[in-house]
Amino acid sequence: MAVFDTPREAFGALRPVCVQLTKAQTAENVERLHLQLRSVSDSALQELQEYVLFPLRFTLKTPGPKRESVVQKVVECLAFVLSATRVRKADLLQELFSELCLCLGSPSSPSQLAPLSEELKQDVIWALQALLHAADWDVLLTLYRPSALPHLGFAVSLLLAVAERERAKAVQISALRCLQALLLQCDCRKRHRPLDGEERRRVGDLFASFLPGVSVALSRVITGDVKQGHTVVVAATRAFSRALSGVMADEQLARVPPKREKSALGRDGRVAELLVHRSPEWVTGTAAKLSILIRKVVGGVSAHPHWKARKELADMSSLLLSECSRSLAGSVGQLVKALVGLVNDESPEVQSRSNEALRDLAAQGVLAEDRRLADILSEELHALTTALPRLMSSQDDQGKVSTLNLLVGYLKLLGPRMNAVLHSVSHLQRLSKALMQVLELDAKDVKIVEERCWWGPEGSQEPPGSLTEPLPRGNSPRKHFRFFAEDRVFFLLRQVGRILGYYGDLCLLTDHFMELYRESATYRKQAALVVNELIAGAAGRDVDVLHERGTGPSKDELRGVVASVLEEYVDPANWHLVTSPEGEGLDAEPAVKYSELLAVPPAEGFQLPPPLNPRPLVHSMSSNIWQICIQLEGVGCSALALEEDFRELLISVLYPVLEKAGDSTLLISQVALGTVADICQACGYDSVPGLICQNADYLVDGISLHLCRLAHEPHAARVLEAMLRHSDADVLPLVGDVIQDVLAALDRGHSDRMPLFLGVMHTLVSMLASWFVSGCPTGGKPEENGGPLLGGAGPQEKRPAAVPTAEEMEAFFQEYVWQKRIAEGDLPDEESGEEGEPLPASAPESNDNSLEEETPLPFHAQVAKEVMERCVHLLSDKSLRVRLKVLDVLELCVTVLHPHQNHFLPLVHRTWPALVTRLTNDDPLAVLRAFKVLCTLGARSGDFLRRRFSKDVLPKLAGSLATQAPVSARSGPIYSHTLAFKLQLAVLQGLGSLCQALDLDESDLHQVAEACLPYLSAKQPVKLQAAAHSVFLHLMQMDPDAVWLFLGEFWCPRAYEPPHPSLRPVRLSGMGKTRNEFTDNVQRLLDELQ
Q1: Got the DSSP string for 562-602?
Q2: What distance in Å separates the CA atoms of residue 642 and residue 645, rounded to the nearest whole number?
Q3: CA distance 356 to 83
Q4: Residue 161 dihedral angles phi and psi, to the nearest 5°
Q5: Residue 975 vs residues 284, 781, 931, 983, 1019: alpha-carbon distances, Å
Q6: Could you give the 3-state DSSP secondary structure of residue 291?
Q7: pTM
């Protein structure tokens, strides 16, 4: 609360301070007055306003130099008084206005800015703003009479000088806001009475004289150093737009009389010379000059990094388009360009403001009914598409995004009028050629050619994910383009295609781009990309527009367009392209010219390879891969566009898509799987297996037909593989006849087609294993077959810690004697048939038919049996590639058939001779794979192979390990990358579990231990030591005493004293030996036995 509420009390308190200040103009006296004024109420101060202002004004008007601190205190006190009172006299307003402006001017040259401190400049500007806000409205308007024009010009020039030259951002912003208040368009919280039409015209007439200087100075501030910060740019842009709209508003110019009014200008005729008459000629000339500044401002602010500056540009464009569209007709294109370019801005605030401005203009009928504006958009679009390839190759990523934002905005603004533009041949050709050049892919990547789905030792290396599980959406492979790398650029180009499809004539556009697709291999991939987006846009999928279209294409029209496009896509000339150096089935491709299979045409002067064995270039194969992937994406896009109606096209599309799902090129396979998922989602199938099963009839029919013409249709096997791999067990009865056709073709023995058929067999049996066999380890590694490993608990831990009783010891020795007699063959005659010998080789075969009659095989097991029978014959094929594939298939057959022992063991007997040959006399790769099969056989057949293994395989296996041990012991680090090392490692990792599965006798176990002992040396590679360690761990589980005795002969850390004098002491060869290379590993194994 103020202390002095009445004018009398306030006068008594203020009079001494005012008198003192009048006598002595010091900073202390001004400060006392300021302090006393804070104790006076606003109403009392209003009554004493002129009395209080007198000493302050007197201080400012005193001749001679003044201390800056005094002036600053006076200005602060003036601002305080003006903020608490109202100015109700015109002469007081004009005098105060002049006095404050003089504080900024130089004493020697008042038109120039004085060299003042930043604080004083800011205080003077604040006081000027307070004065403008304190004046009553009718009093304030007296400042805008023609006679006050010099005073206004003086203030405007000073404020512009401060805004342009001052480096302090706070002072710059204060000057710009004061200038805006001087234009009577301030953004302060105090509400001013809006100007009526005549008042606006009068103010505009006055400021028309200042417009050139104001606009030029503000444009320099806007486009100045980016280090000045976004707040200065925002304030300058706002003042620039308000100045232009205050002078060039169409509504004002309509009120300006054709000739200058003869008004009373006083006796000073120089004022009349300063006034500008806004005649049509003046408007035209000024608009032409302003268009240069507007282009400069738009170009500078549209690329500003801060979103608030770009949002202010959207506000400026909206203001000038709504109020000055006729007077600034030459700048309408630039303003629309600015607004359109911000429609897809990265900032949500800028996007929202731009969209709001465009919708407001559309609601006013400016964009929908003003033909001239539509013509401007058409011309700007033509110019932009002409320059688009040059801009995309020369700009940085931010510039490319801005350019494409502009293109997208133009198309959005044209909206339903787009058809009229696109029916122009010139516009359509410019737009299409620009898109073709900008969307050119970089097809030089060798990686996508190298990434393939090969059949490996562990089965096929399929793409990540399986279609039996839900696929994540939007997993389109990332494309690499020649002219840009930013994903945002590609997103905007896709939006261009979708907006064209949404508003444009779909038939016209698809015909035009498909013509480019057909006539030029250079444009084929780009045209397919655009056509895919056209179809998605026509269906209204993920397209952002400003106007709703009237009527889109009908379902029948869309289906017809999609059918014609897909027919072109799956045509063999565009679908069966060379994608691998091996030319998978290349020699059996249809007799077409090699050049027709390339998506990238050979350069001029390029000599084609000889026709007998063409070898495509890597960039050609990469280009072909991308073309197929884009066409597959088009199939998925079309399915999502048609939804349930796409079922009618499944009969012509599903077969070729599944063919690519079985392709050996990883990228093609991945995209094809995504396309199948899109089809499943669009057509309403519950799952991909359901899609395949419900359409299996014509898929099987096509496969059967093409299997009869393999020389011309080598891809049928891929379709069958894809059906099996991505379906469930329900599909097996449906493809039974086709499987028989493949087996028959395998029997006919086409050597060139053998890998193809074996690939089908591998997929078939692997799927049978996944469908009908659960939890079956394949063997080969000790970790997979259980048992104690490093640090694990062995069976010896189960021995009772207490001393055995006499009965237990007696039973032990009786069992020992009995086992020794069995080992020596000393058995009664009636028990000789109980030997655990395998049956004669002919026994299983002789009873085979009777067993089949007794226990008929399930269908899946019967199929696996037939496949395994073929593998027996093919194990001796001359081709290493075929033998490796056969071994993979054989291992899977073992997994499927082993539950049916009566049928499985005879087949094992028939397979054994050929398998032994692969193990003992073949390429190291085949030996490695065959040993893996042997481990699986041993795990599945039990002791059936015990004698065969001991007689045919174990001696050579042990000999090979013993031979290679010295080599690996003295090898270097590079040895671990050799095939010999991998073979040693695989044998050692699988040998222990194999011995345990076959239940080898003591002599065979001793032979295994002797072969593995050299690998316990510290000189061996670490992996081989660990593998040998695992072998001995398995042997411990079978015969721990024998292993302890065997290891003790090499190293025994302590002597064993007999528990009784009558017993002889134990003497082992390893006792008393010095430490050697085997000591650490043997000690670790002995610790396991404790």
Answers
A1: HHHHHHHHTSHHHHS---STT-TTGGGS-S--GGGG-SSPP
A2: 5
A3: 37
A4: -65, -40
A5: 86, 21, 21, 12, 13
A6: helix
A7: 0.73
Torsions phi, psi of 456, nearest 5? Answer: -105, 180
Average model confidence (pLDDT) across the chain: 81
pLDDT class of 199 with cuts at 50, 70, 90: confident
- Residue 604 token pair: 């001029």
Per the structure block, which two tokens stand in for 140? 């304030």
Q: What values do phi and psi take at 110, rounded to 5?
A: -60, -25
Q: Distances from the Cα of 361 to the Cαs of 405, 466, 649, 689, 868, in angstroms? A: 19, 51, 44, 53, 76
**Count of H helices and E strands in the chain?**
52, 2
Q: Which amino acid is at 818?
A: W
Q: What is the 3-class SS of 234-274, one letter each residue?
A: HHHHHHHHHHHHHHHCHHHHHHCCCCCCCCCCCCCCHHHHH
Q: What percent of the chain has pLDDT over 90?
A: 26
Q: Indicate the pairing of strand 459-460 with strand 455-456.
A: antiparallel
Residue 420, classed as helix, strand or coil, is helix
Closest among 450, 447, 597, 427 to 524, alpha carbons compared: 597
Token pair for 180: 């805006």
Question: In angstroms, rounded to a whole number, what is the distance separating the alpha carbons of residues 530 and 434?
Answer: 12
CA separation (Å) from 333 to 320, 366, 380, 433?
12, 14, 7, 24
Give the integer Cα–Cα distance in Å for 721 and 718: 5
State the distance between the two ends of the chain, measured CA to CA, in whole angstroms.
Answer: 96
Strand partners, 441: 481
Name the residue among 248, 335, 235, 336 with its Cα closest to residue 285: 248
Long-range contact set of residues 701-705: C-beta below 8 Å, sequence gap at least 24: 702/655, 703/738, 704/737, 704/738, 704/741
Residue 1038 is given by DSSP the state: H
Q: Using an 8 Å Cβ cutoff, are 734 and 696 in contact?
A: yes
Helix extents (H) in 783-879 = 806-824, 842-846, 848-854, 859-874
Beta strands per DSSP E along 694-777: none
The pair phi, psi for residue 105, each rounded to 5°, is -80, 160
- List the one residue out of 1032, 1029, 1031, 1072 whose CA is nearest residue 1050: 1072
Rounded CA separation 439/557 (Å): 27
Question: For 510-550, how does the pLDDT look when each residue is reduced to its tens digit (9 = 90+)?
Answer: 999 999 999 888 899 999 999 999 999 999 888 887 778 87
Report the candidate in 113, 136, 108 with the shortest Cα–Cα distance to residue 124: 113
- Alpha-carbon torsion, ordered 644, 648, 651, 656, to 10 deg: -60
Residue appearing with tokens 């608490």: 84
